[in-house]
Structure formats: structure tokens, C-alpha cells
Amino acid sequence: MGQCAVTALIVQDFFGGDLLRAAVGESSHYWNRTSDHGEIDLTRDQFGPGVQLPAGEVRDRAHVLSFPDTRRRYDLLLRRIQDALLDGRSLVDGSDMEGR
User: Fold this and answer.
1) CA distance linking residue 64 with residue 91, whole number of Å
2) What residue segments make up the domains of the chain, in order of their start?
3) 18 and 32 in contact (C-beta within 8 Å)?
4) Within the chain, what is the greatest distance between any pair of CA atoms?
5) Residue 44 contacts by C-beta under 8 Å, 6 or more apart in sequence?
6) What is the rounded distance in angstroms from the CA atom of residue 34 to the CA atom of residue 91?
7) Among 25, 21, 34, which Cα is nearest to 70's?
């Protein structure tokens, strides 16, 4: 649990838009809404099929990053993504992207 906020922050880095948050059971869930791509929820599968997500409320980026553990995990994931992109590695399978 807790990966959704970090993932939503990274998606916002790349695509802009709003961070959305909703309570799903006893969990807090985050995803994105962008003008170009609509809603993006890369961690939705954690709830399984058939679970209805409530409408999300927009959350301020600074608020989401105000939690120290979220900030630490966001910084770590962002650094790993930046390193992978600079090294030409695939973010999906770790393979070298040179020559593609």
C-alpha cells in the first residue's frame, strides 16, 4: 500500500494535470486527471475487478509530498526513473534501449 501516491506524483511530473484522491474502504487512493489523456490510474488493479472507485477530490502536490515517507519514496522512484532514462534502459523490463 502507499505506492499510488508516489506513482501519481511521477505521472504528474510527466503529464501534468491534477492529483486525485479518494477513500476506498479504509485506504487512501491517488491517481491522475490530465487534459490530454483523461484519468490515468496505474495502481487501480490493487483493488481487483468490480470495485467501484468513488469520485476523486483534487489534492495539492505540496500536501501529498508533506508526508516524509511519501517524499522519500517519491525521491527514490524519481531518481531511479531519471537514471534509467539517462542510461537508455527500458523502464519496463530493464533491457538496454540502444538500437531501438
Assistant:
1) 24
2) 3-87
3) yes
4) 46
5) 31, 53
6) 22
7) 21
Three-state secondary structure call for residue 40: strand
Q: Per residue in 18-67, pLDDT tens?
A: 999 999 888 899 999 999 889 999 999 888 888 888 889 999 999 999 99
C-alpha to C-alpha distance for 7 and 3, rounded to whole angstroms: 6
What Rg do the C-alpha atoms of the chain give, in angstroms?
15
Chain mean position to CA 19:
9
Backbone angles phi, psi at 68, to 5 degrees: -55, -40
Distance CA(32)–CA(21), nearest Å, equals: 9
d(CA 35, CA 11): 13
Which of helix, strand or coil describes residue 73? helix
